[in-house]
Amino acid sequence: MALGLGCSSRPGTSRANRTGSWRTFRPVFLHDKCTKCGLCVSVCPEGCVVADSEGIPEPDYDYCKGCGLCAEECPAGAIEMQKEEK
Ligand code: SF4
Ligand code: SF4
Q1: At residue 5, does pLDDT exceed 90?
Q2: What is the CATH number of domain 29-83?
Q3: What pTM value is reported for the model?
Q4: Which atom of ligand 2 approaches the CA of 47 most closely?
């Protein structure tokens, strides 16, 4: 079956498409509340949250779809979902 442009037929292909434009809400990481537990890095289904050398996480907004899972799971309440400004 032929797939149109932008479709992904296999897992692990999200890097091929910059999916950040799909977002209606964006996660804002509040570093003063973050305990550097790393949970957001683990739960992000896009694998787009990366911690720096000091353990401080930041999402790659080119690929973040704004699903909100990181904010839902953050035990410290350090991620706020805010309406995307386009
Ligand atoms: S889940 Fe929350 S507290 Fe843990 S590293 Fe991510 S932002 Fe920080
Ligand atoms: S909102 Fe979803 S896609 Fe974006 S960083 Fe959080 S878990 Fe990942």
Answers
A1: no
A2: 3.30.70.20
A3: 0.83
A4: 8
